[in-house]
Amino acid sequence: MTTTTRIDLPGEVISLDELRALGLTRAAIRHRIHTGRLHRLYPGVFAIGRSRVSPEGLWRAAVLACGAGAALSHLSAARLLRLVEQAPAWPHVTVPGTRGGSGPPGLVLHRSRTLRPEDITIHRAIPVTTVQRTLIDVAQTLPRHPLKAAVRQAVRLHRVDLARLGDTIADPRTEPRRARLRRVIRVYVPGIELTEQELEARFFELCARARVRLPEPQVWFGRHRADFTWRAERLVVEVDGRRTHDNDVAFVDDRVKDRALKTAGQEVQRFTWGEVVHESTMVGRDLRAALKRRQRELGLAR
Predict the structure, then answer these.
(1) Which of these, 172, 185, 90, lies nearest to 132 by C-alpha position?
(2) In terms of CATH architecture, what is 196-297?
(3) Beta bridge partners of 110
(4) Where are the chain's structural domains?
(5) Could you read off the pLDDT of 117-151 as tens digits, one per residue?
């Protein structure tokens, strides 16, 4: 009577090299394929027990199919790292170097001469580009607003230091993806803040370009002074800088001030100095919309 040694296969995806390392012979592997215990996903990579695998299983299979030094990358990495909400239909994988073919069918292969071991981490048992490297890669194709959302997720979920990331992508300045990412993170990185007078001048310029009536600066409401006020619309805009507003005391004071202004009948909107300087078009658009809405609410619209 012949007995067969039971070998437990880990996870839902396994490579040919891993099967051999477990002691399976070619005949044993062929038998498992024939009996449906292994299902080919890519050349040399198999699903265990069933042909359909989870997205993470498919991502790991794609990386295994591309060999040593490969890593899940671009939008696939961004989805695994929860920087974006949707993944592309085919996994994206990056390998070091620039020579070679198009890679196995069923995936998108990127070759990069700048991919280093320190650019790769392990997440949920999958080799994947680091959060910083992933942000650089997706900056090439993501539209501006989804890219900003990905940056915010990187800070929330992975504690990415945007100032350090800014230093990392400072050069080369002409590379498009790094330039796009720099334009996004400069809104959030403090940098050199403006003085009160400089910020006021920038805000007035912003209003003029947006064709928004200039507000009154530094209007007092009881004990609180508002940065910019449109009296007729009862709208106040506060412009905050990280240097003076990014601390526990300012966090409380800002909310006390907002409540006092609302009690005085004012609607309060807050922008950062970075938005005023680097996102002036967006700020101007939001201001126009807010003023029109307040005019309708207060019966001022003509």
Answers:
(1) 185
(2) 3-Layer(aba) Sandwich (3.40)
(3) 94
(4) 13-48, 67-185, 196-297
(5) 999 999 999 999 999 999 999 999 999 889 989 99
